[in-house]
């Protein structure tokens, strides 16, 4: 006597009209999981590439030259920042309060750090100088091709004043 035909989840077997018991077996229900991130080969720390996209050294130098005073106004960070922004690099908020803290910001914008040893200034270079003893703000300045300029026109040497020349604090040079 033939057994009754009971269709399974996939229907009746088309060859012998028997139930496909292979589809009725219990299996573990798959649990959704995240695939692991593919392993990346070990990489050396990338060397920062100098170059700020869309930056105009000419526009920055023209701005700082036309706004500089004969004597310090105590606003070097503001004057140099405004020149950098006039050149086309936007310094994000919140901006550093002190000139001495602009190094990491310039690096993130794409300005390349230049080693101090046997350094020859180039037009558009920016120096970020740490403060001398008794001061907290530091100094920031841009080379216009002849002299260093910030909120005032400085002498050709890197240090802007007597306290800096006396203590010779550390400084970093950034090039667009």
UniProtKB/TrEMBL annotation:
Instruction: Specify the domain of life of the species encoding this protein.
Output: Bacteria
Name of the protein: CHAP domain-containing protein
Organism the protein comes from: Tahibacter aquaticus
């Amino acid at each position: 006597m033939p057994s009754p035909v009971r269709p399974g989840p996939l229907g009746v077997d088309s060859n012998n009209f028997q139930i496909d018991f292979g589809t009725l077996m219990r299996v573990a229900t798959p649990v959704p999981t995240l695939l692991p991130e593919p392993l990346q080969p070990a990489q050396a720390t990338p060397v920062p590439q100098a170059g700020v996209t869309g930056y105009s050294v000419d526009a920055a130098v023209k701005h700082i030259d036309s706004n500089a005073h004969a004597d310090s106004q105590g606003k070097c960070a503001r004057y140099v920042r405004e020149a950098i922004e006039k050149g086309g690099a936007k310094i994000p908020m919140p901006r550093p309060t002190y000139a001495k803290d602009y190094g990491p910001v310039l690096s993130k914008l794409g300005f390349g750090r230049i080693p101090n040893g046997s350094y020859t200034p180039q037009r558009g270079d920016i120096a970020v100088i740490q403060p001398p003893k008794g001061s907290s703000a530091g100094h920031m300045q841009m080379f216009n091709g002849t002299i260093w300029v910030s909120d005032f026109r400085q002498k050709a040497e890197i240090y802007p004043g007597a306290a800096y020349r006396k203590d010779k604090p550390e400084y970093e040079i950034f090039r667009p």
